[in-house]
Amino acid sequence: MAPPPALQYRRVDPTLGTFALRPIDVDADADLLHRWVTHPKSRFWQMQDADPAEVCRQYRAIDDSPTHDAYLGLHDGTPAFLAERYDPAHDEVGRFFPVEPGDVGMHFLVAPTDRPLPGFTRAVLVTIMEWLFADPATRRIVVEPDVRNEPVHARNAEVGFRVTGLVRLAAKQAYLSFCTRDQYAQARR
Predict the structure, then answer these.
(1) At a CB cut-off of 8 Å and minimum separation 6, what does 131 contact?
(2) Residue 2: inside a domain, yes or no?
(3) Across the chain, what does the average pLDDT equal?
(4) Domain range spanning residue 114?
(5) Measured CA angle at 135 (ends 124, 181), to 5 deg
(6) Is residue 115 part of a domain?
(7) Where are the beta strands (DSSP E) in the chain?
(8) Has residue 3 been placed in a domain?
(9) Residues 6 or more apart from 14 whose CB is under 8 A from it?
(10) Count of the separate structural domains present in the chain
């Protein structure tokens, strides 16, 4: 059995512990990803009816893509969230705004749990933002959450995202939102 992929990023939250990101291993992580993305709490991920083979195909396509990456997020060494990074110039959302150099698209999913920790989703999002902005080429992060996903809108606003408009994507109506380095830094003060 091959070892898991190496960690790409690590951050210690003073209250909640260590958060880390590593590239997904499609074969090793497929069952876990399937449980997460098809869980009722993950309805905005739009994969409720996907079977394991379909989830595996989708993440293999991401793994093979030169413009989209998926990462497994760990909390104190245990899988706890999923993050995707993509180039909006090569994504459907890129039709709705002038994509600029340094724009990076992002999706995240916190694993469903019966024992939520206060502040956990915020800590996950801060970890992802820190990871994306650790790349000096990243100037602005783009998200397009479903308009009905009120909890994620609140978390996004907490870290500096500003909604610029409503867009109709193939699978959802979404709020197009952006967060620059300056907006993120101001929100973190």
Answers:
(1) 8, 9, 11, 21, 83
(2) no
(3) 94
(4) 9-188
(5) 70
(6) yes
(7) 9-13, 17-23, 68-75, 78-86, 103-110, 140-143, 162-168, 173-180
(8) no
(9) none
(10) 1
Amino acid at 3: P
Has residue 44 been placed in a domain? yes
Q: Which helix H or strand E contains 57, and what residues bound it?
A: helix 52-64
Whether the pTM exceeds 0.85: the reply is: yes
Distance between CA atoms of residues 36 and 12, nearest Å? 24
CB 5 within 8 A of CB 25: yes
pLDDT tens digits for range 37-81: 999 888 888 888 999 999 999 999 999 999 999 999 999 999 999
Six token digits for residue 95: 């039709």
Q: What angle do CA 9, 65, 61 make, to 5 degrees?
A: 105
What is the domain-level CATH number for residue 159? 3.40.630.30
Distance CA 94, CA 105 (A): 9
pLDDT score at 1: 46
Burial (CB count within 10 angstroms: exposed 0-12, middle 13-18, buried 19+), residue 8 = middle
